Amino acid sequence: MSSFRFLLSRRWAGFTVFVLVLAYGTWWLGQWQFDRLEDRKASNQIVRTNEHADPAPVEDVLAPGKKVAEDDEWRRVTATGTYAVDDTIIWRYRTPDDAKGVDIVVPLVLADGTAVLVDRGWLQTTSQDEFEDLPAPPTGEVTITGWVRADGTGDSTDVAQVDGYHATRALSSTQVADVVEDSLVTGWLHLDTESPSPTTQLRKADLPELDNGPHFFYGLQWWFFGILAVAGFFYLMYDERRTQHQAQPAQAEDTPDGGAGSDVGSDERATKKAAKLAQKQAVKAAYQAAYEKEKSKQT
Q1: Shortest CA distance to 70 belongs to which of 33, 45, 97?
Q2: What whole-number distance in Å separates Cα of residue 4 and Cα of residue 111?
Q3: How far apart are CA 225 and CA 231, in angstroms?
Q4: Does residue 268 carry a pLDDT above 60?
Q5: What is the structure's pLDDT at 254?
Q6: CA distance 79 to 37
Q7: Angle (deg, nearest 10), helices 215-254 and 256-298
Q8: Torsion sign, CA atoms 276, 279, 280, 281
Q9: Cys-Cys crosslink for 177: which of 32, 184, 205, 227, Cβ 3.0 to 4.6 Å?
Q10: Which segments of 58-177 are extended strands (E)?
Q11: How far apart are CA 119 and CA 130, in angstroms?
């Protein structure tokens, strides 16, 4: 464990905290994306169910002051009444397929005197401030089917006067109720069918896409970043430990004790070398003496 004491240094302690925070953040973001995926699946299932359900009377689904239930989003309903053309609402900055235009919203007054906002469809325009010759809805009693939608929220739902019409950037029956005379139910309808048919047909709204979106891959991406951060931390920790181990032998050679040990070793080697040399010289001298003695005998 002594080799890992570097983890207690201020630099490594700060680095460890940073990696832990980063790992938790990427885990949380990944889980958030997977939660959004589950919400998307649940919402798609509601839309699929409502798309194939038989139309219900609008009075059974929408009412004044009654918030649109989540399970009623994109539910198909029927309504019969007359259009209040004088209270037409211009829904500005609508850009299907990147084309400029507006949606034309007209309250449909029901038999009980309440009205429901009906988004009759999209009209291409050249200006968002001048509106001329808006296609008129059918006159007299009209029967429609439409898709239930909840009110928009935020400042974009404010209603203003533009070229003599009520205009908004997001549709909210609550905001529109403040500027029209009719008592509006909460929520509104995307028009599906209209009888009798109008002289000029507007482009109908597209149904929502029912795919799961990119949430699954975004979740995996965040978790991969977290794993990468943790793996990188352990690799750097291993590299630091390896570097310290490589540096220790070199430091030992540079210490005073290491130098003394080196000198002692050198003296021992020199002594042994000198002893071997003296032994060789003694043997050589003995051979030389024996040779001289033998030579003197012969003479």
Answers
A1: 45
A2: 82
A3: 10
A4: yes
A5: 56
A6: 34
A7: 50
A8: positive
A9: 184
A10: 76-83, 89-94, 101-110, 114-124, 142-149, 160-162, 165-168
A11: 19
- The reply to whether the predicted model has a pTM over 0.70 is no
Containing H/E element for 226? Answer: helix 215-254
Summarised one tens digit per residue, pLDDT across range 195-254 is 999 989 999 988 888 888 899 999 999 999 999 999 998 988 888 877 777 766 655 555
Q: What is the pLDDT of residues 82-97, one digit of tens each?
A: 999 999 999 999 988 8
pLDDT over threshold 70, residue 147? yes
Select from 201, 82, 192 the least CA-distant residue to 142: 82
What's the CATH code, domain 75-195? 2.40.50
Inter-CA distances, 276 with 268, 269, 272, 283, Å: 12, 11, 6, 11
Neighbours of 176 (CB within 10 A): 23
Q: The tokens 């181990």 sit on which residue?
A: 245
Question: What residue ranges do the domains of the chain occupy?
Answer: 2-50+214-234, 75-195, 243-291
